[in-house]
Amino acid sequence: MTFGRPTRLTIPRGSLWFANIAAYAIDGLRRLDRWQLSLARQEPKTAEEVLAWATRIERTEPSFAADLRAAALRSTGDQDR
What we know:
Order of helices and strands: HHH
Structural class: mainly alpha
Largest sheet: none
């Protein structure tokens, strides 16, 4: 009880340090998130871009790469590749 006198409110040093570290970490995570979102690949627009994408993913997803290649070749009308 203060009985009319102003009270002094002191913040423990450890909690102030922790709050500063947490704020810095949250800011870092937000910057990392913005950076990762900026690196998002654009979806391919042309048949050549689809063929390049199929070549990149062929090792990990061969059946999907074959489907992409077939669709790209069908769209260009080129059946001899």
